[in-house]
Design goal:
The chain contains twelve helices and no strands. It is mostly helical. The two termini are 22 Å apart.
Length: 245
C-alpha cells in the first residue's frame, strides 16, 4: 500500500493516518490491546497484593515488580508500534517480527528520553503551567525520532524540538483531538455498565483502538515534519530510514 508523504494540514494528517490505521488495523490493535490487557492484569495483581490484610514482604516485592514491568512495557510497545507503522507508511516489507526485533535495542533509549521529557514537562507545569504545555508540544515527536533515527536521551528531545518548529498550532490541535477522543471513549461503557470488569475490558478495547490510531497520527506527523524541514520525498525518506537502521 502506497501513501503520499508530503507537507500536510491537520486534516490531511488525520486522513492519511486513518488510511494507514484501517489498512493495518489488526496488527496495530493487537499490539496496543496486548499492552492494555497486561496493564489490566498487573493492576488487578497489585490491588490484590497491596490491599489485603495479610500481605507480606514477598507479596510487596511482587507488587513492586509488577509496577516496574508496567513502566517498561509502555515504551517497548510504543517502540514496536512506531517501527511497524513507519515500515508500513514507507512501503517497507518489515512485519511485526522485525518491528519487535528492532525495538529490543531501542526501547531503553526511548524510555530514557520519555523520562527526561516528563521531568522537563513536570518542571514546566510547576512554572505557571504554560511552559509545561510548550514543552509537551516540543517533545511530542520523541518516540518516532528515537525509533526511526535511533536517537536517545537529549538527542531525541532536541530532534523533536527541531522538527516541531513552525507547527505548534497544528500539534496543539492534534493533542486536543486526542484528549477529546480519550475522554469520550471512556464514557459509553461506564454509563451502560458502571464500574466492574466488563467496563474495564470494554475500555481496554476502546483504549487500544484510540491509542493505536494516535500512534499512527504521531508517526505520520513526524514524517510530515521531516518533509517540511528537510524537503524529503517518499523515496528519499525510505532510503533515509533504511540508512538509519
Amino acid at each position: 500500500m502506497n501513501y503520499e508523504i508530503k507537507k500536510m494540514s491537520t486534516g490531511e494528517i488525520l486522513d492519511t493516518a486513518s488510511r494507514v490505521f484501517k489498512d493495518n488495523l489488526v496488527p496495530l490493535f493487537g499490539i496496543s490491546f496486548g499492552l492494555q490487557a497486561a496493564i489490566l492484569f498487573l493492576t488487578a495483581l497489585i490491588e490484590t497484593i497491596f490491599f489485603v490484610d495479610d500481605a507480606d514482604v514477598w507479596a510487596a516485592v511482587a507488587g513492586l515488580v509488577a509496577v516496574v514491568l508496567m513502566l517498561f512495557m509502555a515504551p517497548f510497545v510504543t517502540a514496536i508500534s512506531t517501527r511497524y507503522i513507519a515500515d508500513r507508511y514507507l512501503g517497507r516489507d518489515g512485519g511485526l517480527g522485525s518491528a519487535f526485533k528492532a525495538s529490543i535495542g531501542i526501547f531503553i533509549p526511548l524510555l530514557f528520553a520519555i523520562i527526561l521529557g516528563s521531568i522537563f514537562m513536570g518542571i514546566g507545569m510547576l512554572l505557571l503551567v504554560i511552559p509545561g504545555f510548550y514543552l509537551m508540544l516540543r517533545f511530542s515527536l520523541i518516540a518516532p525520532a528515537t525509533v526511526v533515527e535511533r536517537r536517545g536521551g537529549m538527542a531525541a528531545l532536541g530532534r523533536s524540538g527541531m522538527l516541531v518548529k513552525g507547527a505548534y498550532g497544528k500539534l496543539l490541535l492534534l493533542f486536543v483531538i486526542q484528549w477529546v477522543a480519550i475522554l469520550f471513549s471512556a464514557l459509553p461503557a461506564f454509563l451502560i455498565f458502571g464500574e466492574g470488569m466488563t467496563t474495564d475490558m470494554i475500555n481496554a478495547v476502546i483504549s487500544a483502538l484510540v491509542g493505536s490510531f494516535f500512534a499512527v497520527v504521531w508517526t505520520v506527523t513526524y514524517f510530515e515534519r521531516r518533509c517540511e524541514h528537510e524537503g524529503f520525498d517518499m523515496q528519499l525518506l525510505a532510503q533515509s530510514f533504511s540508512d538509519e537502521q
